[in-house]
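Action item from last week, closing it out:
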Amino acid sequence: MDSIHDLIPHRPPFLFVDEILSVDENRIHATRLISEEEDFFKGHFPGKPIMPGVLICEAIFQTGALLMSRRSDAPKDHVPVITRINNVKLKRAVRPGDRLEMQAEVTEQSGAAWYMKGKASVAGQTILTLDFAAMLVEDAQ
């Protein structure tokens, strides 16, 4: 399996995927151990740390980007970008020490547009669900 660093341009401290657990043509399951040392916990919230919901969304987006980049029809000189976010439902908090599991599934692909649904969970409990769209765009390095 390709390295995460080979598939997407994200790097620490803004890389929110540690490991790909499983992947096929249209689905991916990945994970991230949420450390108490995460920079965002310094301000969100001191003494009562909670992972910001937008970063949980980002972890799902990066998981979807990994799926897109692994596809054989994905141009290797393109990077994934989010174009739409819908139906975000945040149900529980993510705290230091949690093992965040992310799933993304392609529901439709039309030209350059990829439509997906995503889910984040901890210990089998759903944390967040959403629908999103993304495109692979030429890397303008």
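Closing note: Residues 16 and 59 are 5 Å apart (CA to CA).
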